[in-house]
UniProtKB/TrEMBL annotation, chain A:
Record family assignment: Belongs to the acyl-CoA dehydrogenase family.
Keyword Oxidoreductase found: yes
Organism: Bradyrhizobium ivorense
Name of the protein in question: Acyl-CoA dehydrogenase fadE25
Acyl-CoA dehydrogenase/oxidase C-terminal domain span: 240-362
Highest taxon, organism lineage: Bacteria
UniProtKB/TrEMBL annotation, chain B:
Keyword annotations of the record: FAD, Flavoprotein, Oxidoreductase
PROSITE patterns, alphabetized: ACYL_COA_DH_1
PANTHER family, per the entry: ACYL-COA DEHYDROGENASE, ISOVALERYL-COA DEHYDROGENASE, MITOCHONDRIAL-RELATED
Protein's name according to its UniProt entry: Acyl-CoA dehydrogenase
Annotated Pfam families: Acyl-CoA_dh_1, Acyl-CoA_dh_M
Length: 369, 387
C-alpha cells in the first residue's frame, strides 16, 4: 500500500536537519562559495549531530539504525534547502560510509567503519567522475589490474568532493573486461598510498563549497581485499542508484529554497502598478515551480522506496534523476529571472543557486547515465 | 559572414582580428579577476589607438547596409569575442544617440567633443534603471526640482554601466511629476558633483568585465545648462524625454539581440570544436543537439537582422525588436546551457569558455527589458490590449 507518511524517526531527522540548514548552512553559503571551501568548525558541528554513524552497525560502533535511502533523501533535501554545497561538504564522508554499509564485506566494515563513529571528524569521499568518460560511465579510463594477490590502480578522477582532506576514497575503476558497468568495481584507497596525488579543481562554476579535487593514481598498489565487497567485488549498480537518489534529493532541496525565496519577493515587488505575483507570466512560473518541487520529491521518494525494499532501483533512480535535472535547473533559472537584475548580482543567493544547480546537473548528468 | 557588402565585411574582419588578439584575453582576465579591468589598464589605451585607426562605419560611408544593420553586424562580431568588454569599451556609449538627437548644439560640443579628441580612455553613462523599477521604465521615482542656479536631483539608480569611471552620467529624472512619465527629463551629472554618493560597483554572476554601478543622488545640484535639450525641448513635436528614451531603447534592444547572437555563436563554435576534439561528435544524439543549436542560432540572427533592416527603412519595428531581443537572449542562454551539457565535466570545472558564456548569457534576458516584458510588448501590439 502506498504511504506518504514518514516514521517518527524520519520526521525527527528531517526537523533537526531543517533547523541545522536554516541556522548553520544558509548564513554561511555565500562566504563558503567565495572561499571555495567549507569552514572546519561547521563541518565539526555537522559531525557532532552524529548522522554519519547513524546507520553504521552496532558491531562497528555505530548507531545501528536501519540503513534507509528514504531517510538519506530526507536529509539531503533538508540540507540542500540551506546550501547544496555545504550540505554535500557536511555529508561527504557518507559517500564512503554508506556504500561500505550497503556493499562492504564484514571485514571491510570492521576495519574501516569504527573510525566514523567517534567524536572526531573523519573525512572520506568517493571518486567517480572522469574527464573523458563524459556521459558514459562504463567508458571510464581508470583501471585496476590484478598484480599478484593485489591490484594496481592507474588513472585520474575529477570532481572528487572534499577530496583534499579525505583519508580514504572509494574509487570506481574498470577491474575486468566484463562489458559495461559489469566490469566496474569500487576500491578502497588510502590517500596516503604511494602514487596518489590530490590537487584542487579550478574554475568550477558552482558547489564550490564542496572543495572539489582531482585525484591521480599512478600505479597505486592495493591489497587484494581493497575491492568493495571483497572477493571479485560487489556489483556497483546499487551504489550508482543510491548516488542518483542522493543527488536528486539535494537538487530538490535547492529548488525548494529557490521557490520559497521567490514567492514573497513576487508578492512584494511592484511593477506596472501591481505586485508581479499578480502578473500571470510570473504567477504561472511560481505555480510551475511549486508543482515541480512536489513532483521531484515524490520521484525521489519512489526511487528511495524501491532501494529500501531491496529491489533494483536503477530504473526509478534514473527517472528521478533525469526528471529532477531538467526541472530543478529550470526552477533555479526562473527564480533568478523573477528577481531580474537583483538576481544577477551576488548580494542575493539567486545567481549562486543557479551556478550550484548547473554544477549539480552536470555532475548528475554523468552519474545518471 | 555572407550577404553583406565588401565594405562592411572589411570592418567585421578588422573587429575579428582585434577581438581574437585583444578582446577575448581581456574579457577572460576580467572574469577571472571578478572585476572590470582598471581604467588605466593598457588594454583601453590600445583600444583607443585601434579605434582611431579603424573608426566605426559612418552614416555617409559608401555601404548599402543602413546604420542599424551595420551596428547589428558589428555588435554580433564584438560579442562573439566578449560581450562584457564591448560594454566596457571607452567612449560616450549608450547616451550618445540621446545627446545627438536631443542635445543643444552647446551640449553636443561640451559633452561629446572631448571623446573625439581624447588620447586617454574616457567613459560616459546613461542612468535610467532604479532599484524599485527595472523593466517598468515609467515607474521611476528620481525627481528634479528647479532652483535658482539649475536643478536639484534626488533619487537612486542601479545597474548603470561604466558609471563609476564616467566623466558624466546622463540621469533620467522627473521634473514635472504631475505630467506622469511625460515629465521625465535627462540631466548631465558630471563626475565629482556633490550629492552623487553611495557609488557601489556590483558583484555580478557574469559580464564581470564592465562596471554595473548603483548610486544615490542626494540634493545633487547641476547647472541649468545640464538639462538635456534645454528648458524647452528644441523640437516642439516631441512628447518629451520619455518618448525619446523609449525610442532609443527600441534601438538598443536590437543591439542586445545582436550581442546575444554573437555570444550564442561563440557557444556553438566552442561546443562543436569540443565535440570534434573529444570524439563526442560520433554520437547521433550530440550531432542532433548541435544541429538544433545551429537552427536556433540562424533563426535568432535572421530575426535580429530583420528588426534592424526595418529600423533602417523607418518601418515601425517595436514587435520585431522585442521578438529578436527575447528570442536571441533565450537562444544564447539555451546554447550555453546545452553546450555545457555536451562538454560535461570540463564545462563545470576547468575554466571553460562556455561556462563563462553561460554566466554572461543569463544577463541578456534581463537587461533592456526582461523576456517577460518583451512578451508583454509583443502581446499588447498583437492583440491591441490597452497599455
Amino acid at each position: 500500500m502506498i504511504s506518504f507518511a514518514l516514521t517518527d524517526e524520519q520526521n525527527q531527522v528531517r526537523d533537526t536537519l531543517t533547523a541545522f540548514a536554516e541556522n548553520e548552512l544558509a548564513p554561511r553559503a555565500r562566504s563558503a562559495d567565495q572561499a571555495r571551501g567549507a569552514p572546519a568548525e561547521l563541518l565539526d558541528t555537522a559531525w557532532s549531530l552524529g548522522f554519519t554513524g547513524l546507520s553504521i552497525p552496532e558491531g562497528c560502533g555505530g548507531g545501528g539504525a536501519r540503513r534507509s535511502h528514504l531517510t538519506g533523501a530526507l536529509m539531503l533535501e533538508a540540507l540542500g534547502y540551506g546550501c547544496a554545497g555545504l550540505a554535500g561538504a557536511a555529508l561527504s564522508s557518507m559517500l564512503f560510509v554508506n556504500p561500505l554499509i550497503d556493499l562492504g564485506s564484514e571485514e571491510q566494515k570492521l576495519r574501516y567503519l569504527p573510525a566514523f563513529c567517534g567524536e572526531t571528524r573523519c573525512a572520506a569521499s568517493l571518486a567517480l567522475h572522469e574527464a573523458a568518460s563524459g556521459v558514459d560511465l562504463a567508458g571510464m579510463a581508470t583501471r585496476a589490474e590484478r598484480s599478484g594477490t593485489g591490484w594496481i590502480m592507474t588513472g585520474a578522477k575529477r570532481l572528487v568532493p572534499m577530496g583534499e582532506g579525505a583519508n580514504h576514497l572509494l574509487v570506481l575503476a574498470r577491474a575486468s573486461h566484463a562489458p559495461g558497468l559489469a566490469g566496474i568495481r569500487a576500491f578502497i584507497v588510502g590517500t596516503d598510498a604511494a602514487g596518489v596525488t590530490i590537487t584542487p579543481e579550478r574554475g568550477t562554476i558552482g558547489l564550490t563549497a564542496l572543495g572539489f579535487a582531482r585525484v591521480e593514481f599512478a600505479g597505486v598498489r592495493l591489497e587484494g581485499d581493497a575491492v568493495l565487497g571483497g572477493g571479485d567485488g560487489a556489483d556497483i549498480r546499487p551504489l550508482l542508484a543510491s548516488l542518483r537518489i542522493g543527488g536528486a534529493a539535494l537538487a530538490t532541496g535547492l529548488a525548494r529554497a529557490v521557490t520559497d525565496f521567490a514567492i514573497p519577493y513576487a508578492k512584494q515587488r511592484v511593477a506596472f502598478g501591481e505586485p508581479i505575483a499578480r502578473k500571470q507570466s510570473i504567477a504561472f512560473m511560481l505555480a510551475d515551480m511549486h508543482i515541480e518541487c512536489d513532483a521531484m520529491r515524490w520521484m525521489v521518494w519512489k526511487a528511495a522506496a524501491e532501494a529500501d525494499a531491496g529491489r533494483d532501483a536503477t530504473r526509478a533512480s534514473v527517472l528521478a534523476r533525469n526528471y529532477v535535472n531538467r526541472h530543478a535547473f529550470k526552477i533555479a533559472d526562473d527564480g533568478l529571472q523573477i528577481f531580474g537584475g537583483h538576481g544577477y548580482i551576488r548580494d542575493l543567493p539567486l545567481e549562486m543557486w543557479l551556478r550550484n544547480m548547473r554544477m549539480l546537473t552536470i555532475h548528475d548528468a554523468i552519474a545518471a547515465a | 559572414m555572407s550577404g553583406f557588402s565588401a565594405a562592411l565585411c572589411c570592418h567585421v574582419e578588422r573587429a575579428r582580428e582585434w577581438g581574437q588578439a585583444e578582446v577575448r584575453p581581456a574579457g577572460l582576465e576580467a572574469d577571472r579577476n571578478g572585476a572590470p579591468l582598471s581604467a588605466d589598464h593598457p588594454y583601453f589605451a590600445r583600444f583607443i589607438a585601434w579605434r582611431r585607426a579603424h573608426p566605426l562605419p559612418a552614416e555617409d560611408d559608401a555601404m548599402p547596409e543602413g546604420h542599424a544593420v551595420r551596428m547589428a553586424v558589428l555588435n554580433e562580431e564584438n560579442a562573439y569575442w566578449d560581450r562584457g568588454m564591448g560594454v566596457a569599451a571607452p567612449g560616450p556609449g549608450l547616451p550618445t544617440p540621446l545627446v545627438v538627437a536631443m542635445g543643444t548644439p552647446e551640449q553636443r560640443e561640451r559633452f561629446l567633443a572631448p571623446f573625439r579628441t581624447a588620447s586617454t580612455p574616457r567613459w560616459a553613462a546613461f542612468a535610467l534603471t532604479e532599484p524599485g523599477g527595472g523593466s517598468d521604465t515609467s515607474a521611476f521615482r528620481a525627481r528634479a526640482i528647479r532652483t535658482d542656479r539649475g536643478y536639484l536631483l534626488n533619487g537612486s539608480k542601479c545597474f548603470i554601466g561604466n558609471a563609476a569611471r564616467a566623466d558624466w552620467v546622463l540621469v533620467q529624472a522627473n521634473l514635472d511629476p504631475d505630467k506622469g512619465r511625460a515629465g521625465q527629463r535627462a540631466f548631465f551629472v558630471e563626475r565629482g558633483t556633490p550629492g552623487m554618493t553611495g557609488i557601489k560597483i556590483e558583484n555580478k554572476m557574469g559580464l564581470r568585465a564592465y562596471e554595473s554601478v548603483s548610486f544615490i543622488l542626494e540634493h545633487c545640484e547641476v547647472p541649468r545648462e545640464n538639462l538635456l535639450g534645454g528648458e524647452q525641448p528644441a523640437r516642439g513635436s516631441r512628447s518629451g524625454a520619455y518618448g525619446e528614451t523609449m525610442g532609443a531603447l527600441n534601438t538598443t534592444r536590437v543591439g542586445v539581440a545582436a550581442s546575444a547572437v554573437g555570444l550564442a555563436r561563440c557557444a556553438y563554435d566552442e561546443t562543436l570544436s569540443f565535440a570534434r576534439r573529444s570524439g563526442a561528435i560520433s554520437s547521433a544524439r550530440v550531432r542532433d543537439r548541435l544541429a538544433d543549436m545551429r537552427r536556433k542560432l540562424r533563426a535568432a540572427w535572421l530575426m535580429t537582422l530583420r528588426a534592424a533592416w526595418k529600423a533602417d527603412r523607418k518601418i515601425p519595428n517595436v514587435v520585431d525588436a522585442s521578438m529578436a531581443k527575447v528570442f536571441a537572449a533565450e537562444t544564447a542562454h539555451e546554447l550555453a546551457t546545452t553546450g555545457m551539457d555536451i562538454i560535461g565535466l570540463e564545462a563545470g570545472a576547468g575554466e571553460c569558455l562556455v561556462e563563462k558564456l553561460f554566466r554572461d548569457a543569463k544577463a541578456l534576458n534581463i537587461v533592456e527589458g526582461t523576456g517577460q516584458i518583451q512578451r508583454i510588448i509583443i502581446a499588447r501590439n498583437l492583440v491591441g490590449l490597452p497599455r
